[in-house]
Structures are given as structure tokens and as C-alpha cells.
Amino acid sequence: MRGSIIISVTNDIITDQRVLKMAEVLSGTGNDIIIVGRQLPGSLPAGKLPYTVKRFRMLFRKGFLFYKFFNIRLFFFLLFHRSCLLVSNDLDTLLPNYLVSKIKKVRLVFDSHEYFTGVPELEDRPFVKSIWKSIERFIIPRLEYIITVNDSLADIYRDEYGIDVKVVRNIGKSYGGTAAGRSKLGVQENDLLLVLQGRGINKERGAEELVDAIALCEGVHLLIIGAGDIIDNLKKRVVSENTGNRISFLPVMEWSEMMFYTATADAGLSLDKGDYINSRYSLPNKIFDYINAGIAVIASELPEIEAVITRYNCGLLIKSVDPRSISDIICLLRDEPGLLERLKENSVNAGRELNWENERRKVKEIYEKAGMEFLR
Questions:
Q1: SS3 76
Q2: Mind listing the pLDDT tens digit for each residue in 181-196?
Q3: Which residues make Cβ contacts (< 8 Å) with residue 97, sequence separation at least 6?
Q4: Distance (Å, rounded) from C-alpha 140 to C-alpha 182?
Q5: Is it the case that residue 153 has pLDDT exceeding 60?
């Protein structure tokens, strides 16, 4: 099966480690890889990637008009580019991929990173949600190859549509690099250093409560790496609470550079509240980044996250995402260095199993069933 493999996603590609890891596996078929996404004002350059990258510049950056025009442009791009396989990432790229796969009789793989119709942004917009749900109900039962990120989401799709869904977790590559060093970050040597990373530092993900919690904890420094809808509000909160000497912000950066800073920390945080079905059953890739950086994990008590932390005993769970509960857990790690060291050691051990090198074998098996042949 020769030709181009076209992978599409609505983000800027550079920071989507799942898409890049999938592309790396598929490059083993010897086919050209084309990744289609969008150009954002703060997007990092794509020149270093060993793939053809097409990023649409969009007049509208969010909402109905963004999705409408992005999907139209994606449809015509897919229609007029020769391909041997289409890979749609998430529901917001699925319709044009599905239509073109039928028109051109090209195989399609759907990789669902989340339960799109269960995101909080749609909860108060029933009409918009109904449109996305209609697309989902029309297309997903007709698909032969579907991947998602954890067992809980796979079960939701299986129960709702009676389909076969394969699971490929968002496990990162083994890092194995160096750490930044506290002096580079301006952090006191004896402080407990925490990190919160991600491109989606948005509402309902516990970041506001975390910033408030830091105000309750002496001897603690928080490093926030990434971007999101509430970053500006978080910075204002830091100023109003006079915690600027204990909370630092770094921008979006490439994965290896981000991990250089993450590996410096003592513990990483993931504080999704779980009020909506998508977040309730999420398993963020940052969990595995923290583990592969050899640091402890502090996370909200959500089913998929709890299963990982409990199995490997590599972190602590928070029952309620509020400033006092978060600060209590942080202070526990600060005051019990022996516990912190045990959790970090367990993360190192867990990382020997939870790494992309093991997960990529599943990816190859899925795509071989979809007709792709890998070079030996």
C-alpha cells in the first residue's frame, strides 16, 4: 500500500505528542507522511519535523465559524491530495475525512483523543452539542478502525455504538535526559518544586485552585509550563495574592525542552475536576510525562488516573479539587521527604513499563490490520 498517509488534527501539531508519535510509527511503512493542522499566533516552527506539515491560517480561531471553515479547507485538501490512508484525530476532523474516504475509497482510521461530545465547552450549548453528536452517531458506527486513549472511553464507545475500539494510551517516550537545575529556575534549593504542564490549561482543570493553594504553603515553588484559556487570569491571581516569588510561568515549548524542566521538579500535578464525562474519564499524557521524568504525581481522584497511581504507587490522590485539599497534600510531601523519595523511586520503576516503546507495538498491530505494511 503506497502513497501518502495524511494525518489531520485541529491543533498546531508541534505540541501534540500523540500525533507526532503516531506519525513516527507510520513513517516505518516507507510512505510519505503529511500532517494537517492549524497555525496559531504562538505556534512553534515546524521546520524540524521530518514530515510534510500543512497548517491552515484561520481567520476565526474558535467556535462555529472556526470549525466550519477548517473542515471545509480540510475536505478540499484531502480531496485533491493523493493518499493511501487517512487518519482523523478527534471528532472535529472526522466529517471531511469520512466523506473523502468514501469518495476516494481510501481507508480511514479514527483516533479519538477524548470524548468530544462530553467536553465542558459544549455542556451549556445544547444546539452545538447536538450537531457534533449527530456527526458522531452518523459516522462512528460505520467505521472499521477506531482507537482511543483509555479503557473507560473505549467502553463508552462500545456501549453506545456496539463497535470495536482499540486502546493506545498517551504514554510518552522515555526521557532519559538531564534536568534544568534549580538555580536556572530561581528556586530555593530546599523548596518543594512542583510542575503543572500542558497546552490546555483551561477552566475546570484545577489551575486556579492550585494557585490559591500555593498561597497557603510556605517552602513550595510552582512551575507552570504551557498555555491555555486561563493563563492570563492565573498571572493576575499571582499578583493579587503576592505569590510571584513562588510561582513561575514558562511558555509552550517542544517536548524535550519541557521535560528538561519537568525533570527538575519533585512532583507533577494533574487536577481535572471530573465534573464532565470527558474529564471524568481522562488519562492525560502529563501523567506519563511525570512518571517518565521520575517525579511523584499529585492528581485528582479520577478512575483512569487512580488506576495508574494505585498500581504503581507513584503519587497521591486528591478527593476534592479545592485549595485546602490541594495544600494539605502538597504540605504532606514537603514535610515527609522519605515519602516523596519513595514515590519518585516508584515513578522511575513504573517508567520502565509505562513508555512509548511498549505502546507503539499496539499501534503497528492496529495499522497492519488496516492494510499498512511496515518495512523490516
A1: helix
A2: 888 888 888 899 999 9
A3: 8, 74, 78, 86, 87, 88, 108, 110
A4: 48
A5: yes
Measured between its terminal Cα atoms, the distance across the chain in Å is 15
Task: Give the residue from 112, 117, 115, 138 showing the smallest Cα distance to 129.
Answer: 117
Q: Is-contact 57 39, C-beta < 8 A?
A: yes
Per-residue pLDDT at 18: 93
pLDDT band at 63 (very low <50, low <70, confident <90, very high): confident
pTM: 0.89
Give the tens place of pLDDT for each residue, 292-312: 999 999 999 999 999 999 999
Write down how long the chain is.
376
- How many Å is the Cα radius of gyration of the chain? 21
Of residues 364, 365, 368, 374, the one with CA closest to residue 29: 374
Write down the pLDDT at residue 180: 84
Within 13 Å of residue 371, how many CA atoms lie on the same side as its CB?
13
| Residue 214 contacts residue 223 (beta carbons within 8 Å) | no
Residue 347 has pLDDT above 70, yes or no: yes
Cα–Cα distance, 131 to 129 (Å, whole number): 5
Q: Which residues of 11-50 are buried (b: 16+ CB within 10 A; e: fewer)?
A: bbbbbbbbbbbbbbbbbbbebbbbbbbbebeebbebeeee
d(CA 216, CA 326): 10
Which is nearest to 169 in space by CA: 37, 305, 371, 24? 305
Q: Residues of the chain with pLDDT > 90: what percent?
A: 75
Residue 365, helix vs strand vs coil: helix
Express each pLDDT in 317-346 by its tens digit: 999 999 999 999 999 999 999 999 999 999
CA distance 12 to 190: 38
The residues pairing with 54 across neighbouring beta strands, listed in sequence order, are: 36
Strand extents, DSSP E, the chain? 4-8, 32-39, 52-57, 85-89, 107-112, 145-148, 166-167, 192-198, 220-226, 247-250, 267-270, 296-300, 315-318
Are 21 and 113 spatial neighbours (Cβ–Cβ below 8 Å)? Answer: no
Question: Which string of DSSP letters, residue by residue, matches 287-343?
Answer: HHHHHHTT-EEEEE--HHHHHHHHHHT-EEEESS-SHHHHHHHHHHHHH-HHHHHHH
